[in-house]
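Order emerges. One example.
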Amino acid sequence: MDSIVSQRFDDYPQDVRLKLVEIRTLIFKIADDLQLGDITESLKWGEPSYHVQSGSPIRMDWKRKSPDYFYLFFNCNTKLVDTFREIYGDVLTFQGNRAIVLNRGEAIPEPVILHCLTLGMTYQKVKHLPLLGA
């Protein structure tokens, strides 16, 4: 893990850190399984950010002003969150067209999040397809 990103992870409450590390692990697993190449891991706006050549950047964060939730952020100029809402509107909660909102006290819905992350990480390849090819 990038040392600056690691320091940011250390700032999160332990239960949130574990969930964000779980999501980070999914990101690296997707990149490996789909052979998407190198992942750029950095901080963008103080939030851990992940990007592969074929995708759109994905950020994650927990905020003190909304301590019961943590977030997966996607570029608001893409069709990603609108597509997630159409497919998983009955399972996930969203913030506008930029974020998936996850409840800190609940288990991560892994198959759903895995699919959303996959669409984000392959966005450049699927952006022309209806519902991103989902």
Summary: Strands lie at 40-44, 47-51, 58-62, 69-74, 93-95, 99-103. The CA atoms of residues 96 and 132 lie 19 Å apart. The chain has one domain: 3-133.
